[in-house]
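Structure ticket #2291
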Amino acid sequence: MRKIVASLFISLDGVVEAPDQWHMSYFDDEMGEAVGGLMSDTMLYGRKTYEGFAEAWPQREGTDDEDAGFAKILGDARKIVVSRGEVDLSWRNSEKLAGDLVAGVTALKAESGGDVSIGGSISVIRQLLQHGVLDELHLLVHPIAVRKGERLFDEGDSRIPLKLLSSNAFASGVLHLVYGPAD
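Resolution: structure written out below.
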C-alpha cells in the first residue's frame, strides 16, 4: 500500500501562505536535500498549487537554469490535480482526480507504486488530515513569525491528534518535523 506524504514550509506562527515571500533566505543544501527526498513519481496537487507550478516549472526544463533538473523531475512525475471545477491540464503527465477527494486518495493508496507526495495544497492537506487519510506530514518550520496569512490549521470543532515521527534541525534554524496519525 502506498503512503500519502505531505510537506509544507511553515512559519513559527503557523503561516503556510506565500512561502515564496519569506522562506527563500532559509533555503540551503540541507533543505534542498530534504525537499528533494520528499519528491515521488506521483504528485497530488490542489488546483491553485498546480496552476502556479504549471506556470513556473515547465519552461525551466532543458535550460541552463540551476533548477532545470528539479523542473524535469516535476515534469516527469504523474501529477494528479484535485479540483471541483475545470482545470487546464496542459503540463505533461497531468490528470484530474476523479470523484470525491477522500475516496480518490484512498484508491490511490491502494495502487501499487511508491509514495504519493503533496507539496503545498493547504486545503487538500487539511481535508486529508481531517479524514485520517494522510500518512505523514512533513513541516519545515522556519524561524520567523510572518504574522499574517493563511495558517495550516483553521478553526474547527474536532481535534486532529498527531504523533511526532522524527525531527531534524538544520544549521539555518529550520526544523524538519515529521508527524503521523496518533494511534
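Closing remark: Residues 47-56 form the longest helix (10 residues).
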